Amino acid sequence: MTVLSVNVNKIAVLRNSRGGREPDVVRAARACLDAGAHGITVHPRPDARHVRADDVYALAELTREYGVEFNLEGNPFAPPRAGYPGFLALCEQVRPAQATLVPDGDAQLTSDHGFDFARDATALRPLVAQLKAMHCRVSLFADADGEDPDDMRRAAAIGADRIELYTGPYAEAHAAGDAAPMLARFAAAARRAQTAGMAVNAGHDLSQDNLGDFLAAVPNVQEVSIGHALIGEALYAGLEATVRRYLAILATV
Ligand SMILES: CC(=O)[C@@H](O)[C@H](O)COP(=O)(O)O
Ligand SMILES: NCC(=O)COP(=O)(O)O
Question: Can you tell me which residues bind 1-deoxy-D-xylulose 5-phosphate (predicted)?
């Protein structure tokens, strides 16, 4: 079964817009877990635009309390700065069950591509080894809309346990009413990853609208991490009800 990890970055965006503590990121995460979500994801960015290091510490404690997966995402190459100790240092401090490495930059509005495994392998390999020594499962953010037959073999050779398929291009194609060719590419990428010995996660711009079609077409997705759409939909339906709707979609696949 595919599990749902709720990304609560967007709760922190609202909170930061006024300062103070509300809406409370930990309370929101607790509501998601009470509704049955299988884990919590955050993607702290060095510019502190949403979750900050203190949120990461508090969410690590919450997920330990619930006995669920904490998935920490970030760019392992971004240097530390005031208020952001660096991705590996954060992992060392909180030991997330899963560390998802993402090649993003401050100038990006959000994550918009995966790693180039041929180019980035030498730099990634020792970092992946360090994370595994911390007993983190390691997932690498990966493009799935290309057709490089060796991409996933390269990711596996870096030492990754999983890849996370970057689903932004799929979500765009789905919204344009032309998802079939993209789904075929994603299914092929998932199969290449599984043949190379890795499990497959997926995330970015997944929503109630596009999730079912994705999971019906792409084999054996272990986990989806969903934030932006889910938090937006929760403004209308409530957080717990929205999480339950996602769980119902997962249950139909
Ligand atoms: C890796 C990924 O797709 C998500 O972490 C996404 O980047 C959410 O991050 P933001 O909330 O900063 O857009
Ligand atoms: N890894 C993807 C994620 O955590 C959430 O992405 P989005 O749903 O906020 O686009």
Answer: 45, 50, 110
